[in-house]
Structures are given as structure tokens and as C-alpha cells.
# Entry
Amino acid sequence: MHFEDQPQDAEYRTHVRAWLEANAPRKTRPDETWGLHLPEDDRVAAAREWQRRKFDAGFGAIAFPRKYGGAGGRAYESAIFQQEEANFSVPVAFYNISLGVCIPSLLALARPEHKERHVRAALEGTEVWCQLYSEPAAGSDLAGILTRAERDADAGDFIINGQKVWTTHARHASWALLVARTDASKPKHEGLTVFIIDMKVPGITVRPIRQASGEADFNEVFLTDVRVPAANVIGEVDGGWKIIVASLVHERVSIGGALPRDLHRMTLEMAGDRANTDARIRERVADQYLMSQGLWLMSARALTAVSKGQAPGPESICAKIIAGRFLQDFAYFGMDLRGSEGVLAGRELDEAAMTSQRMWFGSLAVRIAGGTDEIVRNTIAERVLGLPPEVRIDKGIPFKDLAR
Amino acid sequence: MDFDFSDEQKMFREEVRKALARACPVVEVRKVLEGQGPWAAPAWDALVEQGVTAADVAEEHGGLGLSVLELAVAAEEVGYALAPTPLFTSIGLALEVVRRAGSPAQQAAWLPALAQGAATATVALGLHGVLPCLAANGTAEGELTAVPDGLSAEAVFFRALAADGQVHWCRVTANSAGCERRAQDSIDPTRPLAGVKLRQASVEVLAGGADAATVLQGVLHRGAVLLAFEQLGGAARALEDARKYVLDRRAFGKQVGAYQAMKHKLVDIYTAVELARVHVYYSAWALQTNAPELPVAAAGARVAASQAYTLAAQEGLQAHGGFGFTWAADCHLHYRRARWTALILGNVHDWREKLVSGLVATA
# Structure
């Protein structure tokens, strides 16, 4: 049992650190958020530029195959890079959907010609991907989507109509993975098909969603008579559910991510002198430590498995529940520390207040995206504890006959 | 990065689990609960036979010369089996007092018997009340209370205050003149307690020369880590028992475990247990390597494991419904054990304090 790198990993980390030092400024505080004051288009331009530089240096696609421009490295090296990158003030999350979810799914499931066409450009960062899965009436119950794909028998194309929602980066994406219903006479999981969609074709309208916080990080996407060649189907027609399940696994692994070791220092710094003098504050610092250090240790446990070429254990699913709870607590704590002045919007105070207040709303999304707390609990109950599955009254019934 | 036990340590754990499953079915636990003996003799014999008591003792003192990690995984199994044994008091606490405060001669005299389970000892930590007084003639005057395994242990280690204001670690034995011991009722009768009255009792002062407070710190850290392993094992067992029950029990035409309210309750326990697990394992690493993080890691393990066991025992009992409230169900064994273990080394507020002091000190 130890927390040191193996010699080869230590060497890699040194190499990574040296490159980062030469190419990016260090964070001045662990909770510093890059680009807080930049308009979205500038953030995106900077994220593209950063990905390109990483790619050229061999760090943009560490664990992807060399054939497509990846570095052919190990998942563990990728985690080392993420850990080190977290100490620098750089745009980090922009490619999570592209490289964490869409491209791994393509590599696992798409035809060779799709991989040839798409993977390299995505790894370089020139082409961004988004995921057109969720719909207004299909979130947790994703298989309940209403977007239709109808075959145009003459042209051999599919024509897609419907509405998607909560799409990250839709405005900036060149391509999307989309799921649509190709056969409503089959039960709901059986009539779905996954397509590669060119986001620039006619019939696609992207509109930002104004979130509860007032910001707009997500979009809704309207598809009206969007024509897609049959060659863009991934896997089998009506065989899309398998592909969705596989890509959600990638999403979960990608959300787990790597955490900095000194996450708990943020709480202590925020508390300042009151961490010495106020017993009530000290109790909260301790509770925050248990969650944030616990998350780091859980990621260390998962990484240990990864470093041995194994999959992380089932307990890593719990991390999402703990992360949601921690971030929400962390936000409240930061706001409480301000006392009555805490009613001022962050920009009236300072960076730390802005971070707390962003987290105040951001933590809500963590508890919803990629599986709500309740869905995650069901998953753990059924897959890990082996408790009986939820009753499914929609099983085996043609989708068109279900009550809506 | 290798945040895991080695294959050998996992095998050792497996052997201990099997041995305790044979030696300490719950009927043995209940014998102690009903006052038949100070501990489950078959369980203690099994631990001695498996080498648990000797695991992290040096070979020159009759030990196996392994690390505290072996002892830790065994403690987790002791918790899992609910085994009433003096492992915590004799090997977790007393042995460490001897190692830290004893002179070479005292260590040579006492450690082999402890390591081989031939004798047991305990520690009155003195976290409450006033310390006994130590007179110049080598006698002590005072009272010790809530001493775990205090009636059965051959020797009790405690701190006493000398006239010059110095605190010394002392040892008093069952047959010392002026030492009177009596059983005290425990909230968990499977973890018996005793009061010790010292009336000009002849005691032996530990002569290793170490500072008494530093020794106490070291003993508390080791105790917190090893007890956290017991708590973790107990919590996992309480969850496992609740899971079995809700799968077995039916209400309104289906398994109770099929109701989402019950599923989510058990997942909340599981999440608390897995969060505790990483803190507890981390504390074992810190203890084994004597890392600067030890005070924080031990406190983190103690708080997280106390909270997880409390939740698992309490909600696990609730998951059993009315049956859980009976003497016949094992739920109250955990409910008692969870509270007892959460208090014996000081409560979670004390340990949160230690945790934050440690964080501030290393900031």
C-alpha cells in the first residue's frame, strides 16, 4: 500500500509537469476557475487552442490509439496528466463529451470508415462532438425518446424530426451522436437507432437554455426534416439501445475523473482564521474533509485498479452521490462564512465568493446530470447490492401503445 | 499508486474470516452478552492460532514481524464476526503502551506473553476524570472507571500523576496489593467494563523514558485505526444482514427489498460504508508508514467509521421492522457495538477537533 508513483509513472509525471510549467500558468488558488470573466466564444477559442497544443505535444489524446494520432498510452498516464493539469489555469472540461464519451463510443462500436473519417479530427480538437440523447420527455427514462427517424425508401436516407435538450456544446459542435426512434411498433428499447449527425446540415436549430442560475451552458436542439445518410447508422438499425448503454458507461467513467490530492485544503483556506477559533466552523471543516478527502481516496482506489489493468470496483459509483453532496455543502459553507454580507452577488465580493455561488447552482446539476441521485441509488441497489429491480409496466409493450 | 492491500494480506484476511466463521458463530457472541465469560474463548484462541495477536510484534519479542496492516485486516474481520475478544485492548492498546513507554527489560518481560495470547492486558486511557496519584514509594491512589476488559486483563496500564507534576505510565496487576476491581455494566455487554480502585496499590512504573503524553498520542492513533477497522467490518456485516432480511421478508405481495424507500436506505448505508472504507484504509497506510498525515488520517478514519457503523446499525435495525426490536434479532448487537466503539476513545466531536487541529498544523 502506497501513494507513490511507480518509477515509470514518476518519470511520466515529471515530463508532464515540465511541459505544463513551460506552457501554462499555475493556479494561484486550488479553487481558481479558469475563464470566469471571459465570454463564451473566447473560452471556446482558448479551449480549442489548448487542446491543439496538448495534441501536438502528445498529451491531447494520451490513451487513444496511435493509428488516429493518439499517444497510445495507458489510462493511468491519462489520469496523471489530468491530476497535474488540475494545478494549472487552463480550460479543461470543453472536450469531456467529445473525448470522454463520443469518441470512445465510436472507437468501440462504429464502422472502420467512420473511425477513419472522424477520430483524428476529434482528438486534435478541430471537430467537437455533442450528444443528442436527452429530450424534454426523456431524461432518466432515456428510452422514452420521441424523436423519429423515418426511412426515405427512394433516397435510402433517414429523415429526422424531434427535439433534444440539455445538449452541452451544441453550438460549437461539428458532429453529434443522436438517438432516434426508428420503429414505434416495437417495445421502447428495441426500436431505437443511433446516428452520426452533421451539425451543419439544414433543419438543425440550436437554442441556448437559460438555466436556474441565469447562465446558459446547455442547449436545446430542434431537428426538422434533417436528412441523414443510412451509412451514418452506428451498429444496427433498431439496435441503438446497446450503443447508448455502452456510451453511458464511458460517460460515468469520464465524470468520475481525477481529483487533486489537496481538495480539502480549499475548505481550510476558505475558513481562514475561523478554522482556529470557531468550533462550529471547525466541525464543518472536518465534515468537508471527510467528503473531499474521501473522494480523492476513492479515486485513488479506482486508479489503483486502472493501473493494474482492472476496471474500478462497483463502489466507485457512490462517488457521484458523495460529490454532489460535497459540492453543495462546500457552496453553502462558503456562503455562510460571509455572514449577512453573503447576500451580495459574487461579483460584488471576490473570486472565492463567485466560486461558491457558481457551485451553489452547479452542484444542483451534478446531482442530475449523468443519472440523478435517485437513479444512481437504484443502480447501486440493483447492480451492487442485488436488490430487486423496479417494476416496469412498460416492458414488452409496443412504444406507440404506451400512455404518455 | 497502490491503494490496496497486497495479495498476501488479502489471503491472511480470508483465513481469519474463515477461522472466525467456524469459531465464533453468533451463539458464541450471545454467551458473552448473557454474561458467560469475559470474551468468546474459541474466537480468541482462533486469533492467537492464526497469528493475529503476534502479527505486528517484532520477532525478538516472540512476534511474527509482520506489519500493522495484517493486524488491521484481522480487526476488520473481528468486527465483521462481532467477536468479543480482547484484541483491541490487549494488542491494540496495551501492547503499544509497553512498546512506547516500557524499558527494554519491561518489553522483553511483557511483550511475548501478550503477542502469544498467554496473557492479556488493557489500558485505562484516562480520557475522563482525574488521574491517580503516584507516591514516591511506588504506590498509586485513585480510581479508574470504564476500563475495557478491565476485570479479565492480567494487567492494567494507566497514567498517574507524581508529586513533582510528572505523568508516568504505570502497570498494576490483578494480584497487586491495594488493587480492587469490580465489573461495571456496559452499554454493550460483549465489550465488558470494569472500575479499578487503587488504595496504596503497588504499581510498576514504565521506565522507557518516553514522554507520557506522546505515548498516549501514539496509543490513541493506533487504537483509533484498529477500532475503525472493527467498526468497518461491523458496518459491512450490519448492511449484509439487513440486505438478507429485506430480500427474505415479504409485504404487500413482494419482497420488502423491492421497495425503493428500502433500496435507497440500504444504498445510503453502503455509501457511508464505502466512504469510511477509504478513510480507514488510508489511516492504516499512515500508521504503518508513520506518515505526517497520521493524526488527520486516524481522526478521519475514526469519525467516518463511527458514523458509518452508527448508520448501518441503526438503519439496519429499522430495516428489520418489529423483529429488529427483539432480543432474538442480532441487530441490537450492532446497535450496542456501534455506540460503544464510537465512544470508548472519545466521541466524534473530540475527533473532529483532532482532525481539524491536524489539518491546521500541516497547512
